[in-house]
Amino acid sequence: MAEFTLVEVDRAEAPAVYLVVGIPGSGKTTVARELAGRFPLAAHIEVDALQDMVVSGGRWPGPEPEDEADRQLFLRARNACLLARSFHAAGVVPVVDDVVVRSVHLGFYREHLAGLPVRLVVLAPGPRVAAARIAARDKQLAHDWGFLDAVMRTELAEQGRWIDTSELDPDQTVALALAEHAMST
């Protein structure tokens, strides 16, 4: 049997860190997974899965502000950033997907990913399309999140690469996300 030895984890850094955001039903998880699949070595960091790791006392955000739910929202974002930094340093392209619609939330990501080549992709199909996608899922949401579309369009306007996914399939959306002009935050 060959000897098992310690190997270096970090090597040449990944070329980019992708942050795929939008309202619930915009296609974030599907697009992020497809986008990660386009690179030779990439990881999909689904922020909802990080929230699911809280096995007791977990609080999901609701339409009204709640201190503990808001704290956990930033905790999961911080954990996503820690994972993204680790993957990036190891040469693995991190693709983070999260519901980010407020400038303070995006600012938190920017602060915790400072110094990395972040590519912001904002999926914006509109609230009716997002609601229809949610209705077609097996898992239903507890609240109607359509109002977040207007918040996102106001607070994140002109930041990153905006893609209206209303009429696009995941491959078309990923192609736009990868387009050279789409590469800045």
Automatic annotation (TrEMBL):
GO terms for molecular function: transferase activity. It comes from the Bacteria. The keyword Lipid biosynthesis does not apply. It holds the Pfam family AAA_33. InterPro entries: AAA+_ATPase, P-loop_NTPase. Keywords: Transferase. Residues 14-128 form the AAA+ ATPase domain. This is Phosphotransferase (Aminonucleoside antibiotic resistance). It comes from Actinokineospora spheciospongiae. The lineage of its organism: Bacteria, Bacillati, Actinomycetota, Actinomycetes, Pseudonocardiales.
